[in-house]
Amino acid sequence: MHYQVAEDHGFTAIADFQILDEDGSMTLPVEGGSVLTENYVGAAFGNYDSYLVLSHFKGHAMAGFGGAIKNISIGLGSSEGKCWIHSGGTSMTSPWGGDQTAFTESMAEAGKSVSDYLGNGERIVYVNVLNNISIDCDCDGNPAEPDIHDIGILASTDPVAIDQASIDLCFAAEGSEALQQRVERQMGLHTLEHAEEIGLGSRTYELVSIDD
């Protein structure tokens, strides 16, 4: 059924497609975390020696926002791993009922385990698309209409920097009030704070335009 959904949405027409956790999970160690000691990604994660992470940047009902870090944590997590992160490392069967601080920190720590596995970030690149930005995630079947429209596309080898730059650009855009409120309410910026604290990346960045 999942492969049919991928075909229905056109993914199989442009690239080979694999569901990473169709054969279960593999475990990645979390180094330097305060919540997690291990992370669970799809069993096929290790079949690939490098990753290009393409994220549609937007709001999110639970995380506040979703970008590069959410994509390498929740996005790459197996079904068990998704529950593990959402619950702050307390359940591998249910994503509900976890502490919000533990959830945001778990995303950062799971993301670091992925980056560490890929040569301490040497074999992973991030692209965030800032377009049609709603306060809701693309996984929401009935999302709010986008308040922010075409800002542009960012690329980086640092998932913290690209998400911080995405936040800054979105917050400065017209119509960002609802997104700002959601990010604040869900403690979304704490994910970036903790990610920087544990060494996943830096919130300091320089924007370099390639338009010229």
Task: Characterise the protein shown here.
There is one protein chain. This protein is of the alpha+beta class. The chain is built from seven helices and seven strands; from the N terminus they run αβββββαααββααα. The model has no long low-confidence stretch (mean pLDDT 95). It has a three-stranded mixed sheet, covered by helices on one side. Strands 1-2 form a two-stranded antiparallel sheet. It has a two-stranded antiparallel ribbon with strand order 4-5. The protein is globular, with a radius of gyration of 16 Å. It has a single domain, classed as Rossmann fold (3-Layer(aba) Sandwich), CATH 3.40.50.
List keywords for this structure.
212 residues; Rossmann fold; two-stranded antiparallel ribbon; alpha+beta; three-stranded mixed β-sheet
Helix-strand layout with pairing:
Layout: H1 2-8, E1 25-29, E2 38-42, E3 51-56, E4 58-60, E5 64-66, H2 68-75, H3 79-86, H4 100-117, E6 124-130, E7 152-156, H5 159-171, H6 177-185, H7 188-197
Parallel strand pairs: 3-6
Antiparallel strand pairs: 1-2, 4-5, 6-7
What is the strand arrangement across the widest sheet? 3-6-7
Mean pLDDT metric: 95
Count of DSSP-assigned helices: 7
Distance between the termini: 45 Å
Number of strands: 7
- CATH architectural type: 3-Layer(aba) Sandwich
Helix content: 25-40%
Domain count: the total is 1
Write the H/E string, N to C: HEEEEEHHHEEHHH
Shape: globular
Under CATH, the topology can be stated as: Rossmann fold
CATH classification, class level = Alpha Beta
Uncertain runs with pLDDT below 50, 5 residues or more? none
Strand content: 15-25%
The major beta sheet can be summarized as: 3 strands, mixed
Rg, Å, rounded: 16 Å
**SSE-based structural type:** alpha+beta
